[in-house]
UniProtKB/TrEMBL annotation:
Residues of the ABC transmembrane type-1 domain: 85-274
UniProt family annotation: Belongs to the binding-protein-dependent transport system permease family.
SUPFAM superfamilies named in the record: MetI-like
Organism expressing this protein natively: Neoroseomonas eburnea
One record GO biological process: transmembrane transport
CDD domains: TM_PBP2
Record's protein name: ABC transporter permease
Record-annotated membrane-spanning stretches: 26-46, 87-112, 124-145, 194-215, 253-274
GO CC, any one term: plasma membrane
C-alpha cells in the first residue's frame, strides 16, 4: 500500500466510525432508502391505479381491497401514496441538487475573490434569506404557474442562499492553507484551484446541508400543494392528498393521516441521516485535532 493511500484509508475509516457512533443515522438512512425503493417500485406494487375513480367506493375505510381506504372519488389511497412519493422525492432531490450546485458555486466564488464582490453577493443572499422559503416559493410558483418544472425552480431558488453561505465560510478558511498557496505558485488557474482543490475539502459540509435541506424541500412542496399551488389533479402528491383529506377530516381521517405520516417519516429520517453525516465530518468525533 502506498504512503498516500494509507492516510486516505485511515480518514475514510475514521469517518465511518464517527458515522457509526450515531446509531440512529443508520435508521434514517434505511428508512429513506426504503421510501425511495417503494417510490421506484410503485408501478409494480401499487394495488390499484392511482387515478382510477370508483364513485361507488368513495370514502371507504381501510379494507383488503383498499388497505388505506379511498378518497372522495373512490381512488386508492395507498396507490396514490406510493405514486405521490415519486413526485415528492423527484421535486425534493432535483431542487436540492440544483440549489447545491448553484449555491455552492456562488459561495465558493464569493469566498475566493472576497472584497467588494463578496460583500455584494452575500448581501444579495441575505436579501433572499429575508423572505421565508414558503412565501418566496409561493410568489415564484404563482407567477410562473404550478408545473413540475416551475415548482422545482421555485424551491431551488429559495434554497440557494443557504448553500452559498455554507460554502463561503470554509472557502475563506481553506484558501489560506499551504497547498492552495502551492497551487498558486505553480500557476494553476483560479477555477482549477476552486473546483479541484477547495471544493473536495468543503464538500462534506455541503453534503450535510443537502441532506437537511432535502427534508425542507419536501415540506415546501407539500405546503405549496396544500394551498393549491402544487401539481394539478389528478396527479397524486402528498401535499395535495392532505388538502383533499382536510375537507373530510372529521368523517374520513385516513385521507390526510396517510400522506401526513409519510411526510413525517421521510423528514424525520432525513434529519437523522443529517445528524449522522454531521457527526461523520466533525473532526472532534473523528479523533482529529
Amino acid at each position: 500500500m502506498s504512503a498516500t493511500a494509507r492516510p486516505r484509508n485511515a480518514a475514510i475509516a475514521a469517518t465511518i466510525r464517527a458515522f457509526n457512533a450515531n446509531k440512529t443515522s443508520w435508521f434514517g438512512l434505511g428508512v429513506f432508502i426504503l421510501v425511495v425503493a417503494l417510490a421506484i417500485l410503485a408501478p409494480w406494487i401499487a394495488p390499484n391505479d392511482p387515478i382510477e375513480q370508483d364513485i361507488f367506493s368513495k370514502l371507504q375505510g381501510p379494507s383488503s381491497t383498499y388497505p388505506l381506504g379511498t378518497d372522495y372519488f373512490g381512488r386508492c389511497i395507498l396507490s396514490r401514496l406510493l405514486y405521490g412519493a415519486r413526485y415528492s422525492l423527484l421535486i425534493g432531490v432535483v431542487s436540492t441538487l440544483a440549489a447545491m450546485l448553484i449555491g455552492s458555486t456562488i459561495g465558493i466564488l464569493a469566498g475566493w475573490h472576497g472584497g467588494r464582490f463578496d460583500v455584494i453577493v452575500m448581501q444579495a443572499m441575505d436579501v433572499m434569506l429575508a423572505f421565508p422559503a414558503l412565501i418566496l416559493g409561493l410568489i415564484i410558483v404563482a407567477v410562473l404557474g404550478p408545473t413540475l418544472t416551475n415548482i422545482i425552480v421555485a424551491i431551488a431558488f429559495t434554497s440557494i442562499p443557504a448553500f452559498a453561505r455554507i460554502a463561503r465560510a470554509p472557502t475563506i478558511s481553506v484558501k489560506e492553507r499551504e497547498y492552495v498557496e502551492a497551487c498558486r505558485a505553480l500557476g494553476f488557474s483560479d477555477a482549477r484551484i476552486m473546483f479541484l482543490h477547495i471544493l473536495p475539502n468543503i464538500f462534506a459540509e455541503i453534503l450535510v446541508m443537502s441532506s437537511l435541506w432535502l427534508a425542507s424541500a419536501i415540506r415546501t412542496e407539500a405546503s405549496l400543494a396544500f394551498i393549491g399551488l402544487g401539481l394539478k389533479p389528478p396527479t397524486p402528491t402528498w401535499g395535495g392528498m392532505i388538502r383533499e383529506g382536510f375537507e373530510n377530516i372529521l368523517d374520513s381521517y385516513w385521507l390526510a393521516l396517510a400522506p401526513g405520516t409519510a411526510i413525517l417519516v421521510v423528514v424525520f429520517a432525513l434529519n437523522l441521516l443529517g445528524d449522522g453525516l454531521r457527526d461523520a465530518v466533525d473532526p472532534k468525533l473523528k479523533g482529529e485535532q
